């Protein structure tokens, strides 16, 4: 099976971006969305809007689901399961590891192959050089699907376990939100004390984050030890200073949760010595 005809279920911001990148690459695309009327511009570019989920599933060699959550995937697919039997579903809907494993089991009972996915892109970066998509499931299935979906982002297989795409997706998002919490807090602190936020972002925060990112990723660890050059007593004191500065500036304490998490880790490292 060529998998060249792709049906997309879900035309939210991400579903539309996926459809756009696939149309751009010359794929035959069929679209379905719970609320009609979101396919307009894509239909004008050659996509077909299906009249029902069954219609969409029947039109594609490959069905891609990009919906809100696991429950919406189940609800959407349920009436179309007989049509989906013997075909492939690529699920690019975010969810938990357990949900992905259970979805694979549910689909298997109907003879549907699942390639689970996690999108490492935001709608404007879909199809650009930095975008990549995590996939997990059978390796031979990935090998067949990867070239077909490559236009949305570099395909990256992370293992046979259908839960692994969700696992790495969730973990990577946690890293991103941690970074976001830190940058939001940094800006709040500068703003609260009368600093120029734009200048701070451009001249200090950006180069500092760029310098530290590879070190932070390389040093991320599950153990409670901290390398000698990053003395945990020194770091605990530094974190207490930032928390004090934040309190003095009147920055809401909830914005500093990431600092308390790091302080907890340094205190654990000290206690373990
Ligand atoms: N947008 C992003 O930046 C992130 C990047 C990483 C991956 N995520 C995940 O992608 C999934 C879809 O996200 P989205 O951005 O397209 O989300 P929305 O624009 O809110 O669209 C949601 C679509 O889901 C449909 N939907 C919701 N509930 C149901 C339901 N019960 N049955 C059928 N469809 C449902 C909704 O349809 P409608 O409201 O237009 O009728 C939209 O098509 C998501 O897992 C992200 O975590 C995006």
TrEMBL record:
GO terms for biological process: transcription elongation-coupled chromatin remodeling. It comes from the Bacteria. Residues 6-154 form the 6-phosphogluconate dehydrogenase NADP-binding domain. One of its GO terms (molecular function) is NADP binding. Gene3D superfamilies: N-(1-d-carboxylethyl)-l-norvaline Dehydrogenase, domain 2, NAD(P)-binding Rossmann-like Domain. This is NAD(P)-dependent oxidoreductase. The lineage of its organism: Bacteria, Bacillati, Actinomycetota, Actinomycetes, Streptosporangiales. Residues 161-266 form the NADPH-dependent reductive aminase-like C-terminal domain. One of its GO terms (cellular component) is chromatin.
């Amino acid at each position: 099976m060529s998998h060249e005809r792709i049906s997309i279920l879900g035309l939210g911001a991400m579903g539309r971006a996926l459809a756009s990148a696939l149309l751009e690459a010359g794929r035959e695309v069929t679209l379905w969305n719970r609320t009609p009327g979101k396919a307009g511009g894509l239909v004008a570019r050659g996509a077909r809007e299906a009249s029902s989920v069954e219609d969409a599933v029947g039109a594609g060699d490959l069905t891609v689901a990009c919906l809100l959550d696991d429950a919406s995937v189940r609800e959407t697919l349920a009436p179309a399961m007989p049509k989906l039997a013997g075909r492939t579903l690529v699920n690019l809907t975010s969810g938990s590891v357990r949900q992905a494993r259970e979805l694979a089991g549910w689909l298997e009972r109907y003879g549907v192959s699942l390639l689970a996915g996690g999108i490492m892109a935001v709608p404007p970066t879909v199809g650009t050089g930095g975008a990549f998509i995590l996939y997990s499931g059978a390796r031979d299935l990935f090998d067949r699907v990867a070239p077909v979906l490559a236009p949305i982002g570099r395909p990256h297989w992370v293992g046979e376990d259908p839960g692994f795409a969700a696992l790495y997706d969730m973990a990577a998002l946690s890293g991103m939100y941690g970074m976001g919490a830190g940058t939001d807090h940094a800006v709040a602190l500068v703003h609260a004390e009368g600093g120029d936020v734009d200048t701070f972002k451009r001249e200090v925060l950006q180069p500092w984050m760029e310098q530290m990112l590879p070190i932070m990723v390389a040093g991320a660890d599950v153990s409670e030890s901290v390398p000698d050059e990053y003395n945990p007593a020194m770091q605990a004191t530094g974190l207490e200073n930032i928390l004090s500065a934040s309190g003095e500036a009147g920055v809401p304490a909830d914005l500093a949760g990431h600092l308390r998490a790091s302080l907890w880790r340094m205190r654990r490292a000290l206690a373990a010595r």
